[in-house]
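Q: I have 654 residues here and want to know how they pack in 3D. Can you give me a structure?
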Amino acid sequence: MKKSVAITLGVVIVGAGSWVGATWYTGKRIEESSQRHLAEANEKLAKITPLFGLRIDQLKYERGLFSTQARYGVSLVNGDKIAEDLPKGMIEFDASIEHGPFPKSALARGAIAPKLAFTHAELAKTDNIKELFELTKGVAPLSGDAVISFGGYATSTANIAPVQITHEGNAVNFSGLAINGTFDRAQQAVTAHALMETLSVDGEKSDDPIKMLLTGLTMDVNSRMGKFGLSIGDSSVKLKRIDVTRPGDDVKVSLDNLGYGVKLAEDDKNVSVEATYQTGNITLNDVALGNGQAVVKLAKLDGAAIKQLSDTYNQIVRQYMLGASDEGLKDEQFDAVLENAGKLLNGNPSFSIDPISWKTDKGESKLNFTLDLTNPPNVKDLTPQEIMVKAIKQIDATLVISKPMVRDLIVQYAVKKQGLTAEKAAEEADDQMRSMSGMAEMLNVGKNDGDNIIGKFHFADGMGDLNGQKIPADELFAGLLGATGMNDDMDGMEEEGEPAEGTELAAPVDTVSAAGYMQDFDLDTVTAMLDDMSYAPRKQDGDEGPVLMLEPGSTGASELRVDFLCNDFTEKCHDLVVTATYSSKKPVSLKAINAWNQEYRWTRAYLDDKNRAVLQMDMNSEGGIGKENLQIMLNTFFSIAEDFSVTSKAAPAK
């Protein structure tokens, strides 16, 4: 019996000694590695904060047998290139580290297997942040726990404390934020889930009154380091509901289920990206606007090239922010960008919007877009326009607009915001839909197909097709490049940006571009166009710009004219008004005029002060207008003018 007790006691003593020894060894191992981990953290912080030094210092480290007490400080330090003063002082954190293999707090959480350590850290109360502790009623504003295994795997929790602020009748109430996550050092894998219950702002007593309530904010991350040195995985941010009210502007907005998510995936060679944006039901001033989503995809991206482009970009940004001017390195960077861009295009990457959609109870409108790219040969010998054309392998786009959906939104707005009756709102909505449908056909941006307006665009082999109308690549892209200054005139420029010897700087493309787009209405261009249409324009001076008097031709009008409305300061003419005036023995009835206006919303008819019928159409060039589209609009007006002449003669006044 005595022998048995002695053996048991010996086992206990040996076990206890082993545990104490292991605990001492673990504490020593933690202390030895802490300085290395601290140096690695500061090195990474220096790379991501080039304008200033974000530094972590170990202020205290007191190792005991079973636990260690430490304090760390985080501070901002001016860099050599930055003259501005940064905030003074240091934010300090207290850390309590329980040594393994069996930290008591880890055991209390059910972690029975041996662990390296359990740590608890929280923001320390110092003089420079004591006001923050007052807002949290003495609770540490930021705190966190972590259970760390010997293999480098850790589970953690973190909390941002709730905050309540009241000032001069205004209030902010923050429920706090809870974060749970894991980290696997071997795979550099991270998972995290964050939850904020509510954030409310009541600023009705402020100079700019506003009330806002956010509920159910969640953030999720699940990523690992991929084979190309890029983080692969999923991340998302979701908001269950947001309500915003601005009493002064009579604005009330509600959004449900707002969300954003990104997925990065890889295979043996390529990386793909998919970003999703979505919102549930949106209500504006009691008008239900519907819900929508957008899905953007990038596919067949060469992984190694993406990594090199990312590294070069980060290097350039750091140099720019630090004011570096190493010309040789810039040349290397430029060559690296060209080389890796070529590798990227060699894989025929694609960009797609699949789809952007908006949906209500009455229908759905959506856009689908796909762009396939390829690597043009001899890029250095091509102009920017040639690079753009040859790099595009194919474009496909389809736009579907639901007429019942748009009509319903117009009716809701007219009833709830303008106070119209349902019948009157429906009449106005029908008029606007007829106008929109007609303009879509007239400008060739869409075709009417039952309850939808459908627009289709296809581009391949240097030729575009917009709803059956062919558009050469030169016309399609030259306007875009001309607007940015990247046109063929660059060929006459030397490498340093000076004109080549014997060349002159070309005048900037202003009124009419090579692509046939006008930034404003040019008198000579419009005159030539009307002359080609056999209307024999004659120029006169008007009150707001030149006027072209036209031969009425088959329009049946007694007078036909085009007025240019010009800006006195810029002398640019952005508006064009085409007017047909009709003289008849018997004036046209107002009933006939009203009936006409209800059917033809893109023109307006009225009686002038001489009781003559007048038909007018306005055109605007803001943002650019194609010469071909202008000609279509003018021809459409002249054709409508003929119809108006017949209608006016068939409906004399009673």
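Q: Anything worth noting?
A: DSSP finds twelve helices and 30 strands in the chain. The first helix runs from residue 2 to 48.
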